[in-house]
Amino acid sequence: MTIKDTAEEWEVRASETPFVGNKTSVRTDDVVMPDGTVARRDYQVHPGSVAVLALDDQDRVLVIRQYRHPVRHKLWEIPAGLLDVPGENPLRAAQRELYEEAHVKAEDWRVLTDVYTTPGGCDEAVRIFLARDLSEADGQRFEVEDEEADMEVARVPLQELVGGVLGGDLHNNCLVVGVLSLVAARNGDGLDALRPAGAPWPARPFDV
Q1: What is residue 139's predicted lDDT score, i.e. its pLDDT?
Q2: Cβ neighbours of 171 (radius 10 Å)
Q3: CA-to-CA distance for 49 and 29, rounded, in angstroms?
Q4: Stretch 201-207: mean pLDDT, rounded?
Q5: I need a labelling partner for 167 at 20 to 30 A (CA). Which of 41, 51, 92, 177 fits?
Q6: Residue 179: exposed, middle, or buried by beta-carbon count in 10 A (0-12, 13-18, 19+)?
């Protein structure tokens, strides 16, 4: 048996959007179950995101600390952001986020992993990139606002982050998945065996 997620879409008898926000919305679908009954499912409609695990030549990961109001925490995270434009190339979006949040650029990019963050209640898909060969970006720093104005930036040894994840001290989804995926990749076929940065992403098809 091949262990692989497969695309499938059950019949939707009715659909409505009771809430539309600035970036996301809430949809309610009446979905036909396998036994023929109809169940109502509410979920957040999300444009998708990218995240960047930026690894320097001292085996440190670039992380940011940012206030997240829904969970009432300041979380250590890796740079990330929304796919604001339909069909936007995720690599270009990731490069933009790394520049805007850390004023850093990278020469080597690969796909680390693709995840659905909370598939039981949101359709958000995230592509996490591995970025290496880091250097300071050219030009002026991006002007931040709102929560990002209070953001801290640091470089933390990879193994320290692994300890924080397994010890229950670090909770951000992309950081947890990215850090553990990086360790798994190293212990497997190696980082150079990761998918190229432009690998297809069926969850969020993009323009080349």
Answers
A1: 74
A2: 15
A3: 23
A4: 92
A5: 51
A6: buried
User: What does the pLDDT read at residue 86?
Assistant: 78
How many residues can be counted in the chain?
208
Strand bridging mode 125-136 / 49-54: parallel
The amino acid sitting at 147 is E
Give burial (CB, 10 Å; 0-12/13-18/19+) of 161: buried
Residue type, position 118, single letter: T
- 126-141: per-residue pLDDT in tens? 999 999 999 999 876 6
Q: Classify the C-alpha dihedral 157-76-181-165 as positive or negative.
A: positive
CA distance 115 to 110: 15
Catalytic (active-site) positions: 148
Question: d(Cα 174, Cα 64) in Å, to the nearest integer?
Answer: 12
Residue 40 bridge partners (DSSP):
30
**Angle at 18 (CA atoms; ends 125, 115), nearest 5 degrees:** 10
DSSP letter string, 50-98: EEEEEB-TTSEEEEEEEEEGGGTEEEEE--EEE--STT--HHHHHHHHH
Exposed / middle / buried, residue 80 (Cβ in 10 Å: 0-12, 13-18, 19+) = buried
- Percent of the chain at pLDDT > 70 equals 95
